Amino acid sequence: MAFFADIMGTLFERRPGKAAAPSRAPMAALCDGLLSAQGEVSGMRLARDILQRYRTMSADEKRGFFEHLAEALDVDSAKVIAAAERYAAKRDAASYGELSREAEPPRQELLRRLNQAPGGTEELVQMRLDLLQMEPSPALQRIDLDFAHLFGSWFNRGFLVLRHIDWRTPANILEKIIQYEAVHAIDDWDDLQRRLRPSDRRCFAFFHPAMPEEPLIFVEVALCHGIPGSVQRLLAEGREPVPDAEIDTAVFYSISNCQEGLRGISFGNSLIKQVVDELRRDLPQVKTFVTLSPVPGLSRHLKAIAKDRPEAAALLAAAATGDPEALGPHLAALRSLTAEFLLTAKRPDGMPADPVARFHLGNGALLHDVHALADTSANGLRQSCSAMVNYLYDLAKVERNNENFVTGKTVAAAKSVQALLPQGASTGRKP
Amino acid sequence: MAFFADIMGTLFERRPGKAAAPSRAPMAALCDGLLSAQGEVSGMRLARDILQRYRTMSADEKRGFFEHLAEALDVDSAKVIAAAERYAAKRDAASYGELSREAEPPRQELLRRLNQAPGGTEELVQMRLDLLQMEPSPALQRIDLDFAHLFGSWFNRGFLVLRHIDWRTPANILEKIIQYEAVHAIDDWDDLQRRLRPSDRRCFAFFHPAMPEEPLIFVEVALCHGIPGSVQRLLAEGREPVPDAEIDTAVFYSISNCQEGLRGISFGNSLIKQVVDELRRDLPQVKTFVTLSPVPGLSRHLKAIAKDRPEAAALLAAAATGDPEALGPHLAALRSLTAEFLLTAKRPDGMPADPVARFHLGNGALLHDVHALADTSANGLRQSCSAMVNYLYDLAKVERNNENFVTGKTVAAAKSVQALLPQGASTGRKP
Amino acid sequence: MAFFADIMGTLFERRPGKAAAPSRAPMAALCDGLLSAQGEVSGMRLARDILQRYRTMSADEKRGFFEHLAEALDVDSAKVIAAAERYAAKRDAASYGELSREAEPPRQELLRRLNQAPGGTEELVQMRLDLLQMEPSPALQRIDLDFAHLFGSWFNRGFLVLRHIDWRTPANILEKIIQYEAVHAIDDWDDLQRRLRPSDRRCFAFFHPAMPEEPLIFVEVALCHGIPGSVQRLLAEGREPVPDAEIDTAVFYSISNCQEGLRGISFGNSLIKQVVDELRRDLPQVKTFVTLSPVPGLSRHLKAIAKDRPEAAALLAAAATGDPEALGPHLAALRSLTAEFLLTAKRPDGMPADPVARFHLGNGALLHDVHALADTSANGLRQSCSAMVNYLYDLAKVERNNENFVTGKTVAAAKSVQALLPQGASTGRKP
Amino acid sequence: MAFFADIMGTLFERRPGKAAAPSRAPMAALCDGLLSAQGEVSGMRLARDILQRYRTMSADEKRGFFEHLAEALDVDSAKVIAAAERYAAKRDAASYGELSREAEPPRQELLRRLNQAPGGTEELVQMRLDLLQMEPSPALQRIDLDFAHLFGSWFNRGFLVLRHIDWRTPANILEKIIQYEAVHAIDDWDDLQRRLRPSDRRCFAFFHPAMPEEPLIFVEVALCHGIPGSVQRLLAEGREPVPDAEIDTAVFYSISNCQEGLRGISFGNSLIKQVVDELRRDLPQVKTFVTLSPVPGLSRHLKAIAKDRPEAAALLAAAATGDPEALGPHLAALRSLTAEFLLTAKRPDGMPADPVARFHLGNGALLHDVHALADTSANGLRQSCSAMVNYLYDLAKVERNNENFVTGKTVAAAKSVQALLPQGASTGRKP
Prior knowledge:
By secondary structure, chain A is α+β, with helices and mostly antiparallel strands.
């Protein structure tokens, strides 16, 4: 029992500076201790010790820790089979409970107990990020499934909180908005101010109560008169805000996931839905909800087809000059090739090749328009030869679009976009 | 696809008064729809519909719904066995993922998706309360295990928030404190005020962020000079608050669980631990942390032994008069029998028979003193012939006590309490 | 300098329990010390000492303190005259400054400095309440003008904060709503809940930031379908809330000033105005804003005219039975006499005799209807033989009504109310 | 009455975008209207109109507006004299009230009524700033006294709120901290972060509830081990925070007034006092409270004496090189001359010539040490040849120091500082 006495240390201590020295027992013993701890009192202390130890580990030690989770704290297939057989025979609560216990690896309970430590949730998200960044192995991939399962339950939509982000938001949150913006980089605090402060700009983020200073995902919105076709004009320095009375359109021009450690836990369509709700309430004059979205896979696609399609090769060459002017002769081709890419290029499973398209079409949006010279930044030229597109959230059609997309893999697109297609291109629609 | 189109209704609607009429599809179909919904958009609407439908069900219909969960959405033992065999052979992530999926019944995912509806968490807790109040059956007991598993993960200590409860707390919360007090009933708002407002009283509660207006558990604390031996004196109307300078003891005189639907999810020892932390920070002069606790199983125990123990029979007879004065000649016997009960009466597993004793001893507290005439209310006379006890949270000994209790089932008790035992009574200690 | 050293005590001390013992210097010396204190450091300590001393004074000592303010800290007329003459001659800033200083009695600066103590504002309001409750004298009446002047500046409309009061409001605020309700007494917490919790009820209060736990004035609002004519029906136990879709009228049925110590500082019409703004924003379907108001001066008026007006005598006799049924034969007379009272009974200055009428007509409202059997409580029968009236806030006419009332003393009234007048009664309107 | 009808416009309108068009009546007529408005309803609308009009005025028009206040809304000396004579004779409340009314110019009431408009307080502070920036005249100086009087009452210490400023503070507040820092300029958000985020830094500000987004004054604090002698080392990029356990000293290294429009309303010593209170509570290990203060008048003083004092001339020449190294041979002279300046250079009224010295000595601090090369920034070299000093807030002596300073104009200084004086320099102390 010396081990137990050791690791419990001075109970009831938590304030900084006063905490008992953490245990020096081996990590595996600490984990066993935490799993067998009866009282939450000792559990919380052990959880903190383990997380503290983890933080100071080398990459190799962390890998060792993960492998320990994967092997020593795995399910025992033989016991699962025995329990499943008993349950099949008896169908009572006791045998069902036994099956549930046997089929869940002890590492899941370990992770739940680690979460009891102050700040535990954030540390577990960081722990998974470490895991994702390691060279994959079957063992590591298996425990990643446990992280994903647990996070999916904990970061359930019902537990998330939507918050306005504006120039009154605490600086430590805003700092993270700068850091996490993944679509159109925010250069500095002045740039951030241009996106948050004008009367025609909005920003919304989801937070989890256990990580109140860490946004999970955020979307930036521009209120416009009409649907815009250039992100540079949208974000121009020195532009005048659109007067309230002229606003009729809300443009989602950037949506960024913040927590790489929550990969696979999807927040995006909940966020867009709830933001549409908020905007409709506050700004009844807004009738159109639309994105201004990148086409990140376009240039890659064009390269793949360039040898058969001289207009794609010419376009890529023009974009490679880095000079938007050079694109002048290729604008019609650019719009046509973009429409073709989004309407016809597919993954093996029949879904669109472009991830942004999959996201918005999967939400029930419709491909509304295609713009050349819409993102003339270096990145825009490189990834999509300056093309951007609008996905339209038409509330009356969102449900039908979603159904058609999920069941028939049909890409909803405006007639004008379909008309951009070269003669004979197949949209995947049945005749 | 008509079903899908039907149940999705008007998307993006959520405000009261504007919501689309809920679907009239059968409940089982709604559940299948929710489990197969791809987008969170349609999922949230289905979740709301199902919860709304559930609320209006009769008891029989609810039982039918639970049985549907238990049978139609159960694990398939054969598939579990097959998956476990594959995993035993391959040990890769794909087979592990398959085993995890097969071993978790679809109803757990259904409950997680129901939680996405606004207010879903609270409704699920209520749903389990309905379940617990039904005549048990193996089917119902099985799904109760799923609720318990899910709630254990969601109401993880790391997600709970401690809040001071005082006379500045919103009335809708205070109303629930009145309603949920389970140990010493709060008569009305004046009585509540006497427990919250004086400078020598404190109250703390745990909340979950998804149920911000529902306390989960709360503890009432009296700050005292010395350790009290009567709850009536502690709560007397018109008493004077103890001056700050004289306070040296914090007495936990009532701890109440609020959510019957969270039965089995334990918050108590976390709460006591964190409250001790808070009090030590704010009131460094407090050196003693002690309870004034009921002995709910005492009278029942005395009845069981009365035929062999005339002093127990006499005591019960005196208490049955309802007149505390009648207990006068029996006070020594009462204290002795109480000590004997707490130190020697055991459940079959060797743990103390009294549930309050199990709770505090399991937290590492020590049985410090036994008081006669400590609760002279009708309830106090009935359940324990007026006896109450103090459990002491001695921070230097809590860890050793906890270890001894868990491993050796030893009841930690002050020498003075042990001395109350009749000669020859066995405390379960080894000689 | 010993005095100064004494009264400054241990500087920088403020926490409870650690404060230096307050000075035992005479109150007049403390006041002189505070007025001559250079630093705010010593000033704040002196202010606290004076307020603490004041609290423990007997009524006679308080009167002595007020007389000291009135005489020793008065303006010096001779100096004012001299300064005014110099200013008339020189018209420069120095002479203007001197005149300002001489014309303001030092007690005003003393009150401002007392306000620096923690909680000072609330204590000064209480101090004036003490003053108002004393037997008046010219000295006391003079300093009351100083309190009124200062409070008028401090409790400026621009510094007040409007807050919703509902069942989520902290209990210590709600307790004061119960206590301060002056029109229709709130019996207990259950009664309060009936006024705050239903979906068709609202309550709003003004607060001052320096007294955040003390409402200054509040108004209770019932949302109705149509204009009600009975306060008992409005407040009936067990009534069903009006469904949102049927609401078209907001009824201000009670408005209560809370701080007697702020007598003469008017908040009422600001409050009504801002509440109308709030309600129009949140409930656009509400088109009618109306009061259900008492007629507190009616019975007194009827007694005065009873010997010449047999119908008034009969009405009073019926009301005196305390049985609303007894009023049956007198309802027409009651409505007619109420209209007559409100339209024709005047103060010497030509304003309506009834204070509630002066308040609402002065805000630009119109006397819209007269109801018999509208308040059948004991108080209602006593003060107005059960009559109540509606004042209508018709936004399109409020400005003209206000102007006519202020300049021509004209009582705006609906035609139907005018028609209630006996033939030949003069409404004060020009022919 | 057409004027009145016109200016009242559509009552009850306040929301942006819906407000009635503001009145086009002349400003003087608007002011008369506001002063004669009976109801607050019309008053608030008029107040808003006047402020709106004011904002769009040219500088000349603003001057005209101020002159209107100064002349047309001035006190009438003859009436003051008559009222004062009546009051001297009658000593009753009526005559006292009349005197009070006559002696206060109507413009003060006008300013109070302007304050009722939303945002009025902030606009009035801005209005006074305009006034202070104009070419002075007796008329303008007179009304500045009215502003100062009113602001002194409104910004009473008892109405101010202390707030921690840190990296969690809203960005719109932090932006103002950058803008208002007057002592050691904050370069950008990174620099700000270095002052707010480390564990050994604190910042506190006073706010007024009617201007919640405008700090009034703020102080920056460095927690140190020992008393520092160089602001560059204190603020160095890349420095390590002092560990909690080593902290024993709190250094107020910058205190900045934010609102030029509140000139003459002093918040500084209240702020320091309250911050000392806060720090003592949170960090009991801090025993020393000290400033690191500039000596802004030093170089000017040295220039004045340079022709008689060759060491001053040499020092100035070295500082003028802009190279701190050049000061090497002059460090002893610099310390000696700084001590001499602070201890012996006086204003005509006998108070120290240096404003920072007056501030801290007036608060009861003691001149504790003098440092050369303490501020080697361009500004530091220019204004004080790099010298800075520590003023010590020794709680046991603050009261005596304050008394001696106020009454005897004695500069409290450590022996070691006095020893820096050249032989024969007079400190103003009596022998």
